[in-house]
Write a structure and sequence with these properties.
Strand content: 15-25%
Pfam families: CinA, CinA_KH, MoCF_biosynth
Number of helices: 15
Distance between the termini: 68 Å
Mean pLDDT: 92
Strand order of the largest sheet: 2-1-3-8-7-6
Radius of gyration: 26 Å
Structural class: alpha/beta
Family: Belongs to the CinA family.
Protein name: Putative competence-damage inducible protein
Largest sheet: 6 strands, mixed
Organism: Ruoffia tabacinasalis
Shape: elongated
């Protein structure tokens, strides 16, 4: 089975909006053996859209549209498809009522063409927009399947996952059992992941194991489909076991939750408070913490101590430590973490200090970073990292590495190559 993705919107062609929708849809369809032969972007032109539809029908069985479902005059996908298929548009009353209620409650002026968002092809299956207003649709003719989705990604993804996906399984995959598992990795590059997992990766009509970049993390997606549920689940379990054998030290979790959210869940479950003292990252770690859902349950505050004088005068880092060991040191990381722990009355604290780049600092090359962790009634430790020469990338990796250290501490995992404060004092 072949599919084509048609993304509609002049903002895409002007480079104002990145087309993340096509990548998401292609990944989901490919994972169940629906081959995406082409993904195109076009402007809001009736003639261009009609031409694109006619060409797509010649080479694909499934046409997926993104965008062009709004209330504006240039949102022409539904109208153009209706004319092309000679199929009338009808009003979905539930969606129309939601649109009216939304504008009443928000005191917004309702657009003249608001009904465009509530129209659907006759005999199609409406796809309710759970985060927006524009209605999507799933329609099958004698020869093709047409799936219409909104342009905003935060509307498209839930609509696809919650509304379109079950219909794809039922109507296009004949009700087969479909199972998917995500394994999340951090701490290795895509090339390294490809090398370590090369013998495991597979992609065919019924089984799919592939790796995808997910920010600084990597997702390993395992998908299987078939009519025998036991066989499907056995494949998933076997594949997951093989992945764990190959990249066990880099597995941070399962599912779609990234490192900060994994830490958020652990902190909430254990009812612990966290804080931080940052130097080279300039508040990026604390910002990420505060952006998490229910952050107030586990985070009261932290401190940015970019300048050496602030470390000493505000945070209270021992001046002798900085004079003797410098700020790019385990000793400074120890002090920063412990002082933050004390100042904010938290259960654990993280410190980040180092040479972000592009220049060296205290004789340390760019990308040299120390991350310290202080935990109530436990030994303070620090770990040294060597990233690269790109300043902001070093800062991003530092933040994610800090979250990973917290995750390991909260799960009582063994952490390699760390230095304990007591050991340093003893050696001195």
């Amino acid at each position: 089975m072949k599919a084509e993705i048609i993304s509609v919107g002049s903002s895409l062609l002007k480079g104002l909006v990145e087309n993340k929708n096509a990548a998401f849809i292609a990944r989901e369809l490919t994972s169940v053996g629906i081959n995406v032969t082409q993904a195109v972007m076009i402007d809001n032109s009736n003639e261009k859209l009609l031409e694109t539809i006619e060409k797509a029908e010649q080479q694909a069985d499934v046409l997926v549209f993104t965008g062009g479902l709004g209330p504006d005059e240039d949102d022409i996908v539904k109208i153009t498809l209706s004319e092309h298929l000679d199929k009338p548009l009808v009003l979905d009353d539930d969606t129309q009522n939601r649109i009216i209620t939304y504008h009443k409650n928000s005191d917004l002026i309702m657009p003249k063409n608001n009904q465009l968002q509530a129209l659907t092809l006759l005999d199609s299956i409406p796809l309710v927009n759970v985060t927006g207003l524009a209605l999507g649709m799933f329609y099958q003719s004698d020869t093709h399947t047409y799936i219409l989705l909104p342009g905003p990604t935060d509307e498209l993804k839930p609509m696809f996952t919650e509304k379109a996906w079950p219909l794809i399984i039922e109507h296009l995959l004949n009700g087969q059992v479909v199972s998917t598992k995500l394994v999340r990795l951090f701490g290795l590059t895509m090339a390294q992941a490809q090398r370590n997992l090369g013998d495991i990766l597979v992609s065919d009509d019924t089984t799919f194991i592939e790796i995808f970049p997910a920010g600084l993390e990597i997702e390993v997606q395992i998908t299987a489909r078939g009519f025998d549920a036991d066989e499907v689940h056995q494949f998933i379990a076997k594949a997951e076991s093989e992945i764990e054998k190959s990249v066990a030290p880099y597995i941070i979790g399962h599912g779609d939750q990234n490192l900060p959210n994994i830490v958020r869940k652990l902190l909430k479950e254990k009812e612990l408070k966290i804080t931080g003292a940052e130097s080279l990252t300039g508040g990026a770690f604390l910002s990420e913490l505060s952006s998490l859902f229910e952050a107030g349950l586990f985070f009261d505050g932290g401190m940015v101590t970019y300048d050496e004088s602030i470390k000493k005068e505000v945070l209270g880092v021992d001046e002798e430590v900085i004079e003797t060991h410098g700020v790019v040191s385990a000793e400074c990381a120890f002090e920063m973490a412990e002082k933050a722990l004390e100042a904010f009355g938290a259960d654990l604290a993280v410190s980040l200090t180092g040479a972000a780049g592009p220049s060296s600092l205290e004789g340390e090359i760019p990308g040299t970073v120390w991350i310290g962790v202080a935990v109530k009634e436990k030994s303070t430790f620090a770990k040294k990292f060597h990233f690269g020469y790109k300043r902001n990338q070093n800062r991003e990796y530092s933040v994610w590495s800090a979250f990973n250290l917290i995750r390991q501490v909260l799960l009582d995992e063994e952490i390699e190559s760390i230095i304990y404060k007591e050991k340093v004092k003893k050696d001195e």
